[in-house]
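Internal ticket #5521
Category: modeling
Description: The requester needs a full-assembly model to guide mutagenesis choices. All entity lines are attached below as received. Residue total reported by intake: 177.
Assigned to: D.W.
Attached entities:
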Amino acid sequence: MSKSIAITAGHSSTDPGAVNGKRTEAQIVQDMVKMVSVYLERAGIDFETDVEDGVNQPLAKAIKVAKRNDIAMEFHCNAAASSKATGVEVLASEKHKPLAQEVAKAIGDVLDLTLRGVGGWKSEGSGQHSRLGFISTGGGLIVELFFISNPSDLSKWDAKKWLVAKAVAEVLIKHAR
Ligand SMILES: [Zn+2]
């Protein structure tokens, strides 16, 4: 059975999220939504986002969007005090564990990053963001693409971000059909 898709960007135009120098998590994940959108549109897949007219809408809007779609992914960057912390992880309920692992692997393969948690999946209770609403109320998955606080993770992203978007879009397209 085909599933409806939503992709949303963590944080908002007024909340930068994690920061590394001039780079903000909010800008990176908004970029990710735009790039994934390109591939979904190209494949003729209908989807919703929370980015409207170049504005990354706040979490309350993202939760509403997540709730009315079968698969909802919100993109974030991880951050830690140690610049050595690295890897990709996807937070989701037990129900979405296989999909979470599939997306984490797709990203990890492109960026050559460690899969954190259980094959890239972590339960909704773990992690540092106020993300419970998106998962428990919205039924969505929180995709922590890489560590913005790790210069190596960040440079891999800069070099390969379109390939990351393509890989994630391919997973979504597979499930949307
Ligand atoms: Zn975040």
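Resolution: model delivered.
Comment from assignee: The beta strands are 5-9, 19-20, 23-24, 47-49, 51-52, 55-56, 71-78, 89-91, 121-122, 141-147.
Ticket closed.
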